[in-house]
Amino acid sequence: MRAIDRVLAGGLLAEAVLLASLTASIASRRVRLWPPPPGSRAALAWMWDWTVIACGAGLVLAVVDYGSWVLDDPAWILAGSAAVALGAGLTDWAIRTLGRSTSMGLPGQFSARGPYRWTRNPQYLGDILMAIGVILVSDSWRVAAIGMGGVACLLLAPIAEERWLVERYGESYERYRSSVPRLIGRARSAR
Predict the structure, then answer these.
(1) Residue whose C-alpha is closest to residue 33's, from 46, 52, 16, 51
(2) Are the beta carbons of 7 and 59 closer than 8 angstroms?
(3) Alpha-carbon distance 142 to 5, whole Å?
(4) Taking the complete model, does pTM exceed 0.70, yes or no?
(5) d(CA 77, CA 179)
């Protein structure tokens, strides 16, 4: 197996572990890997270590496998760069609004300010935009494979968090959830 394919396999394995961990967190009340239970450094490390491996593999492939696909028009690079910039800006705004430790899955204060007024998960939305942008800029089918696995994880993560958010913040989160879309969509009036 070539080195480039080992990097791809490692990234896909990391995403498979993340998808399984998120699915277990959604399906079972006893298993909660995301968000990590309070004081569970092991669960936090488990999720973040696999995330770093997956993202690292994607970034390495974006460099070493650049241009191996079919998106050789400069318009794709421009569109991808815009998606990365928009996603990074949104993610940064959301992290600054919520705070770094809360953004990493540690307990913190409930917030409906900043970008959280329009989407319950602006960090995930920003990360999805960045993943799509890197796919477009890199023009690599290997990065597309890693990137789409990452998008799948980013779509499952907010579902895994919702039960915990309801338990932690109760009625205030329920009202928020009923009026603000999970990722994108039209805000509904609070009931």
Answers:
(1) 46
(2) no
(3) 9
(4) yes
(5) 36
